[in-house]
Specification:
single chain; 159 residues; 5 strands
Length: 159
């Protein structure tokens, strides 16, 4: 299985880069992982809806360039479906059984995803009703994908 993460913005903090590197290394046993960073747009304070939509559209255009035709696309959205770790692992496993060989997870920028990306999404996933920094979300997502593979393979993991 190939797993691609398409994310908006760069990771500046070393501790987050270290965590991402660690989970990337752990995941190499289970899948081919690719992380693609697209540039984010600066969002002015108190931006109007029009400005925010323009920003989301620009970021969406960058994201769309990297989505492969055959990929099953999972977008991270506050209003997406909440899954337990076991349910996420079952979803990943079921996709593989059905013949999906490429899953793309998309983490948007600080103001969310553009309409074009949302329209391309096959599945909207939420980790919480809370808002997390998108840089930290990358670590959380990688940890959950790693945990999913541990569950799929019947290997121990912390509950």
């Amino acid at each position: 299985m190939k797993i691609t993460l398409i994310t908006v913005g760069k990771i500046k903090e070393k501790y987050l880069r270290d965590a991402i590197a660690e989970y990337s290394k752990r995941l190499s046993r289970y899948c081919k992982l690719e992380i693609i960073e697209v540039a984010d747009e600066k969002t002015p304070d108190h931006a109007s809806d029009v400005v925010e939509n323009t920003i989301r559209d620009k970021e969406a255009e960058r994201i769309m360039k990297y989505i492969k035709e055959d990929a099953y696309v999972i977008t991270l959205e506050i209003n997406g479906k909440l899954l337990s770790s076991e349910e996420l692992s079952a979803k990943i496993n079921q996709l593989g059984i059905q013949g999906t060989s490429h899953i793309t997870f998309i983490i948007g920028g600080s103001i969310g995803l553009g309409k074009e990306v949302l329209a391309r999404s096959d599945y909207a996933l939420s980790f919480s009703k809370m808002t997390f920094p998108h840089q930290l979300m990358r670590v959380i997502l990688l940890e959950q994908i790693y945990r999913s593979y541990r569950i799929i393979n019947g290997e121990p993991y912390h509950k």
